[in-house]
């Protein structure tokens, strides 16, 4: 009952004292004693009067040597005061140390009395006193809570400890007011409950004061600081300072040039805030050109920046934090052009070689100029060197036509090295040049040109066939076959025959050969033309005239026309017996086909029957009597006359002249016979010839006389030019008296007759077309056709006509 009372009034000393005294007063306690005491009583504090409680008086009590024994080594918590018989506290009684958390704490003490020995057990019920404060194990509780923690998450906290028991132990907790946490306490645990989410970036750490309160009276409390560290969750992506970074970069910037620095910040910390920079989706090319520093965000050049390749870059830079949150920014890099590309000249087309006859202004090539730089750096001017017959004409952008400015002449300049220079307008300007080689193709535009305007060649007659006459040469400056000269004779006729039968020309060398031997007497000079032709197509040619002069060689002996050759007995001159000295008897007529000195004839009497009787004129061939004819002179006189020319060596011919000194032909009978017998047939022809000639002459004379009388002394018709040379003297050069011109002179055949009177000097002219020429042939036939020299006389003078007529009649009579 006491115990119950005690428990019910624990901690209330007044109530306790009352109960205590009740118990003492009641004669209840036998044997064992029991006391209830609060813990932590001071030493000497009286627990109870054991003497009394045991019913002993104090004397006996002390005599019996009452004492407190403790079992073994245990502490004796109390002692007996012998004077009072009180049980007093001798040692500190700490309930917590003796009993811990046991709800009832009883300290047993043995009270020993001697004489007789009595043992009384005293039970001390130690009552708890609120002498301990609630205590946390540490002063500060460190907690790390991730900011990503969700609402309602619970975080346990170690409870506070109070050594006291019961009401004196921890009864409740209080959490300092805060934004994030509330406290949840239940029977066995204390927890922080997250009510609002944490944000590390706002508040990195939170200090919470937690107070534990016990139930004692007065309350005791203990506190702890809960230090909550908000752990970072990677909830912040890096943020670039700019969304777009722009930079200008000159091209050809060397590697390691810093273009721009990008920068991103991450509100997270640690790994979560470690920003690294990368390029995001970059082409392979750009990757090799730029790099971004992982840590610093410097964008650097790593390759060759060529404006002409790429003029601007757009890249995305990624900023990434440690756990992989990323953000992006754009980097725009504009490359600035530098004048680093010289212009290039491309020959797009070229007609090479160019024919030299292209008209000025003809397009012969197309030039293209390219400069990879831009703007001014890429604007190109194109020039061509001066002094060439070409120019550049701008056509569509950056294209130029190469055109000729004036006419080309391969023969002057056959090759051109045209230097085309292109310069851009950058600063400094760049330029380049190209040499275009052009050759001029030949056109057959030059005819061969003879070195001389005309050629003349001199050649002696009777040359050997094949001998070289002369050589011509022509030049043609054209190229190859266009300039290859071939010589040929132009077809023409020389003296009625093709020129090629006289001459040949070497086609390659231009050397002209005589094909046959020339005869001065046939022609003295002639002209022909040689053509020089080149081998082009069409060929060009030019002609040159070559005059050939044939010089005379004394190859013709004089020909005696009258008297005819020796042996013809009937050529007899009658000399009147009454002829006085110096009278003209006859005349030797000779011709020489040569010319000049070679035809200058002289006459000599080499033998005479009577050398003193007749004399011959050296030059005219006139035979005259030297003295009067005497009766004693022989009737028949015979003269042998030599005719010599003046050539070196001189050639000569002789003839016999029969002279009959008589007044009557009948006195010469043998002449008659011979003529009759030998010439009976001839006589017939002669008669016919004479009749016709007589008729012709009569008619002619009538016409002449008629003309003469009607027109009063008209000049001589066609004989003017003919009768020019005085008898007896032949000038050395008398060719070409024929007025009709050139080649005909070659055909001239001059015959000089000398007769007794000057008026009978004749010159025989045969027409160009008259083929009477080959002198030797004609003269050899002379006996038949020139039986009478007068027959050849077609153009006598007026008096001569009458004489001629008379003579003809005389000859006619003679034959009969
Ligand atoms: C052009 O150039 C070529 C080669 O360099 C050279 O052989 C030739 O002589 C030059 N021609 C002229 C006309 O300069
Ligand atoms: C000669 O000239 C002609 C045009 O007249 C030309 O066609 C030809 O090619 C030239 N020959 C040479 C070898 O140059
Ligand atoms: C040369 O003569 C020939 C023939 O008479 C003629 O066809 C040609 O045209 C002449 N050439 C010249 C350049 O006179």
From TrEMBL:
GO biological process: anatomical structure morphogenesis; homophilic cell adhesion via plasma membrane adhesion molecules
Membrane topology: Single-pass type I membrane protein
Keyword hit for Transmembrane: yes
InterPro entries: Cadherin-like_dom, Cadherin-like_sf, Cadherin_C, Cadherin_CS, Cadherin_N, Protocadherin/Cadherin-CA
Keyword field: Calcium, Cell adhesion, Cell membrane, Glycoprotein, Membrane, Repeat, Signal, Transmembrane, Transmembrane helix
Gene3D superfamilies in UniProt: Cadherins
Domain of life: Eukaryota
Annotated compartments: Cell membrane
Domain Cadherin residue range list: 60-136, 137-240, 241-345, 354-450, 451-560, 575-671
Pfam hit, one: Cadherin
Keyword Transcription regulation listed: no
Gene Ontology molecular-function annotations: calcium ion binding
One GO cellular component term noted in the UniProt record for this chain: plasma membrane
TM regions (residue ranges): 12-30, 682-707
Primary localisation category: membrane
Role: Potential calcium-dependent cell-adhesion protein. May be involved in the establishment and maintenance of specific neuronal connections in the brain.
Name of the featured protein: Protocadherin beta-16-like
Record organism: Cyprinodon variegatus
